[in-house]
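in:
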């Protein structure tokens, strides 16, 4: 570990040590350990709150979401060691690690994985009374684009459009900044389509505001997955059971998914990483009560592989639990 990392590790370890030694008295004085997320009311903020609650129960440590406009804005801070932990999707993390896409020529080689949490399940949605019945029907319709404050929005839409042989050249683009402005544009009628995240309270509320939405199902087949992976290598299709779709679907529906991860700076202290993993595995009920998608998380799923190394303390934990090596 290079000198900078040693300094960061020492600083974070001292903060944790102070908390552990003086116990409850430190709760008001010691600053909580930050987890980079998006703003309050968004899915990753809710995830961070769930993780914070679980690790508080498990080890008495104080974690707190540190909100940014997008998860991509937190990544450079974690890479520089200015923030110890973050939440992000596999596509964004892989791009940051490889220095591609929005992170072109900015390889984030100090990032380390801690845990795979669960898949983000999503689809393109239209209003319930919209005439579009399939992705092919989106030709010539108004679609959100740009996503200037985030890194994956346009990529997600392009991947799903590709399964119907469409690209952004076949639709009318409406420039937006981020996922919340995408939702606002859909509610206001400036776009015909939005990305709908299954299990997201924010998107459930969006559906209620517009009188209901209909998901546009992805086609099935190996060539469909190949088209998606050509645009978004970490993504895949899966058949969503109605019981996992809330009020949105009434029959099994093929949607797109990709995994969400908890990650860290390479020098984040083991004294924080190890309790995090213990909390994720041992506080299942707490996690699911706070964010139902955590029901997917377990010993068989917590270790994933997207080409980024794991934090040494995470690898050690998984080895001791018989969960290493990572499976694709």
């Amino acid at each position: 570990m290079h000198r900078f990392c040693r300094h960061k590790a020492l600083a974070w370890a001292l903060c944790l040590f102070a908390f552990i030694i003086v116990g409850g008295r430190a709760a008001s004085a010691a600053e909580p350990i930050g987890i980079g997320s998006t703003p309050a009311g968004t899915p990753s903020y809710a995830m961070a709150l769930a993780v914070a609650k679980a690790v508080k129960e498990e080890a008495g440590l104080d974690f707190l979401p540190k909100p940014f406009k997008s998860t991509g804005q937190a990544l450079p801070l974690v890479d520089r060691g200015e923030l110890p932990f973050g939440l992000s999707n596999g596509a964004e993390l892989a791009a940051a690690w490889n220095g591609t896409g929005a992170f072109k020529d900015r390889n984030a080689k100090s990032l380390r994985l801690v845990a795979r949490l669960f898949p983000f399940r999503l689809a393109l949605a239209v209003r319930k009374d919209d005439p579009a019945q399939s992705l092919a029907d989106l030709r010539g319709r108004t679609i959100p684009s740009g996503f200037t404050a985030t890194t994956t929005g346009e990529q997600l839409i392009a991947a799903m459009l590709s399964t119907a042989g469409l690209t952004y050249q076949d639709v009318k683009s409406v420039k937006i900044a981020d996922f919340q402005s995408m939702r606002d544009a859909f509610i206001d009628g400036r776009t015909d389509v939005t990305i709908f995240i299954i299990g997201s309270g924010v998107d459930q509320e969006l559906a209620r505001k517009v009188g209901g939405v209909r998901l546009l199902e992805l086609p099935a087949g190996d060539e469909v997955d190949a088209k998606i992976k050509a645009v978004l290598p970490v993504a895949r299709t899966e058949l969503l059971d109605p019981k996992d779709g809330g009020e949105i679907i009434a029959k099994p529906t093929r949607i797109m998914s990709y995994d969400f991860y908890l990650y860290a700076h390479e020098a984040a202290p083991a004294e924080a990483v190890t309790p995090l993993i213990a909390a994720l595995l041992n506080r299942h009920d707490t996690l699911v009560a706070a964010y139902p998608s955590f029901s997917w998380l377990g010993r068989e799923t917590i270790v994933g592989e997207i080409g980024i190394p794991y934090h040494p303390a995470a690898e050690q934990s998984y080895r001791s639990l018989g969960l290493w090596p990572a499976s694709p």
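note: Confidence is low (pLDDT under 50) at residues 1-6, 17-29.
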